[in-house]
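Researcher: Can you fold this with magnesium ion in place?
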Amino acid sequence: MGEEQVEYYKQRYQRLEDLPGVGPATASKLREIGFKTVESLATAAVGELVEAGISEATAERIIEAARRSIAITFVRGDELVKLRSSVRHLTTGCSSLDNLLGGGIETQSITEFYGEFGTGKSQICQQLCVTVQLPYERGGLEGGALYIDTENTFRPERIMQIAPHFNLDPKEALKRIIFAEAYTSSHQMMLLENADEVIKENNIKLIIIDSLTSHFRSEYIGREMLASRQQQLNKHLHKLIRLARAFNAAAVITNQVMAQPDVFFLKGVQPVGGHIIGHTSHTRVYLRKGKENIRIARLIVSPFLPEGEAPIRITERGIESGEEA
Ligand code: ADP
Ligand code: MG
């Protein structure tokens, strides 16, 4: 499908009611189950709509129409290269980390930072809330950030401290960050399920869940809860990846792991989410403490990058390359 055609349908299908087969009643059903934008419907499954009482034929028609407006369809291998070219990189604002990541954080996929307490996961997230606002030519995505915080660690003061180092006005920078505190795992899931409209209205290009796993870990205790925990986490991540694809946004999650006394620490470190996160997130970065304010970032899995390490430094100015100075 050509770009002009996508553009045509994008203009034509702006609201749910613009889609064929969607009247006011169906539109309100869709909104109730968390599909408030055409973009989010493009990545919906027929079954999800049927569950809300929409007939299968109508559901198929709605989803197909929505897909026309964001160019999701079967593609040939050579076209996939072109489709992938809509993937952008978001600078972390830290040259060593950008190099490790092959130019920054990718849109349309999930990047996970995991490590012990105090290794800089939340610091990186807060810096990304600033860099996402930068113009493309400076490595930004010219958009806003959505920050879902489960540990109450987001600090507006920190944003105001970091912003001037990227030549952004601190108060303006704060205005482009939408913050939500999640109180439980189901609240966290609900926030994301209802996020599509907020994402669209605020031109959100970065979705952060910091941390993905803390509520799940404290609520689902014991072996017998493991299967349902993984199932819920899987659903949550699935929603996240779909939002990232639909809005060409970067998705960043954090995951706290326990200290490892073993020298062969990497073998022992098992992030809380286990295999499900490993399969869903496309890029995983393990953080560990070095001397003083130095942290070592290690790329663990990437579909196309070799593994490697980068030193970073946490300072008053934000996250910087640990190689300088
Ligand atoms: P976590 O991995 O647990 O999310 P954080 O991202 O909160 O860890 O990182 C905490 C670290 O960041 C601490 O070592 C703290 O000293 C450092 N830090 C936080 N704010 C500042 C600042 N304004 N200047 C320098 N270092 C800071
Ligand atoms: Mg943190």
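Model: Folded with magnesium ion in place. The chain has 16 helices and eleven strands.
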